[in-house]
Predict the structure.
Amino acid sequence: MFIVRKLIYIHMANLVENIEQVIENIKTMEHYLHSDIKEEQEFAFELVKKGRAMIVYRVNGKNHFAPVRFVGFRKNNRVNYFENEKKEKKDAAPVLQALFGTSFTHAAIEKEFNDYASTLPGSTLKSRRKYWRVRGEDNKYFDLELATVESAMES
């Protein structure tokens, strides 16, 4: 009964239900981070730098970070994000825990996040974050090729 209620909660809250939906949102975030549109870039920079709960994934073999409050909602984009912020007061962390296991914190990954964030304009939230690492069905780290993201966004 608990599992059924949890699934209904996830569906009603517009939260992601599987790894593929998380990966779709990661691709959208990467697109925004590299966009030629200033508003998209600024949106992505701000979310990453102010995030307290982050998804760790790889792009071309290097760790990148995306905020849970963006990747945790189905088919997220800039417009949907602001709509979700207004009406959805749900936390996506329990869903990510169901998909990826317990979050972790570690000094090395925190340093890596701060190094990554320092490459983005703006100030970074001075807070310890919690992280989830994206792994594929083969239990290997998810590694995205940036060229794949850009070509997928263009179509």
Notes: The radius of gyration is 15 Å. Residues 73 and 80 are 9 Å apart (CA to CA). The helical segments are 2-12, 19-33, 38-50, 68-71, 78-87, 93-100, 107-117, 146-154.
